[in-house]
Amino acid sequence: MFLFTTPQSRDAQPANPVVSAIRQGAERTGAGFDYLLKTAQRESSLEPDAKAKTSSATGLFQFIEQTWLAMVKQEGPKQGLSEYADAISESGGRLSVSDPSAREKILQLRNDPQVAALMAGALTQKNRDQLAGALGRQPQAGELYMAHVLGARGASDLIRAAASDPNRVAARDFPEAAAANRSIFYDKAGRARSVQEVYGVLAASHASTQVAANVAQNAQAGQGDIPQAEIAAGLREGRAKGLVGLFSTNGSRDPVSKAVANLWTTPSRGGTRTASLDGGERYFPRPGQSDARSASDASTSTGGAASTDTGKVVNAPLPPSRPSELSSTAVAAPQAVGKTRRGPLDLSSFMIQRGGA
């Protein structure tokens, strides 16, 4: 009776309130849910009250104080936070709140998943517009995340530097960000990463992530082209080991070994794919190669493929030869004197004659 039904106890569980808040923020601001969710996972592991040890960054999306005050000031009236927005004032390029208690309440909003998701979505749209103007194209998800970490201007500087001067030390251009994000700007050994490597670390964590709700329309309009050259610069050999997925198509395509490289390549005329391998890596040589031949004989019979790149003749053992008694020449050879060869057995003497025949 219940063979093809789902038990009631396995109904969908209540949605995660943090994920629901991120989805609502994406819908209300037009930002991509995938992008916001992955950013929150990267920044706080979906912990609304997460607090950074090296900066003032707090909350689901790790907003620092100045960025948060700026977003509340600009977006607060649209989101029903006009009272908080009015309490924020600007002086000398910095934002402040004169009332300490009001300032604390405004900063505490970073721990509210719904408000934080709204501000993160609005910031994403703002950064996307600024990067599009600076780069002359639509930014990808990884580049938007760079703007979340470095600001739109810092992200555009990093993207340009990764393309023009990839070996430049990133920490020199972004000292404050490097001090607050050592795992991004330095490897485990403490070596300062280049701008190319930092680009790769930040871009890899958001690879193939939807950045906007209308991403399909943008792709059809030709606005979603992937900057392959810049992605490749961040993910080439020697890059920082970012969060590259198991099935990523942007990773290395190099052969896993020298033997595989030989299998991939087409041999030169008269040569073999194993010509560049060491003798110990071969099992049986190709027909026509023998350890009994001289270097000149081998060169003549195989077109020079029997020697390695250094000119050394490869002396590999041949498989066992065919027994002489099984060879065609042995069968055709005359019989030795004194030995007679029997003819085929006549079976007619063993047959019973029937029918009077």
Q: What does this protein structure show overall?
A:
By secondary structure, the protein is an all-alpha fold. The chain has 16 helices and two strands. It has a two-stranded antiparallel sheet with strand order 1-2. Helix 1 (17-29) packs across helix 6 (113-135) and helix 7 (141-164) packs antiparallel against helix 11 (195-204).
Question: What would a concise description of this structure say?
Answer:
With 357 residues, the chain is mainly alpha-helical. It is built from 16 helices and two strands.
Strand order of the largest sheet: 1-2
**CATH class of the largest domain, anyone?**
Mainly Alpha
Contiguous helical run count: 16
The 3D shape can be described as: elongated
What string gives the helices and strands in order?
A: HHHHEEHHHHHHHHHHHH
Number of domain modules: 3
Mean pLDDT: 74
Helix proportion: 40-55%
In the CATH scheme, what's the topology name of the largest domain? Lysozyme
Q: What is the terminal separation in angstroms?
A: 78 Å
Q: Strand content of the residues, in percent?
A: under 5%
Radius of gyration: 36 Å
Low-confidence stretches: 213-251, 272-286, 288-311, 329-333
> Which class of secondary structure composition applies to the elements?
mainly alpha
CATH architecture label name of the largest domain: Orthogonal Bundle
* Total E-strand runs: 2
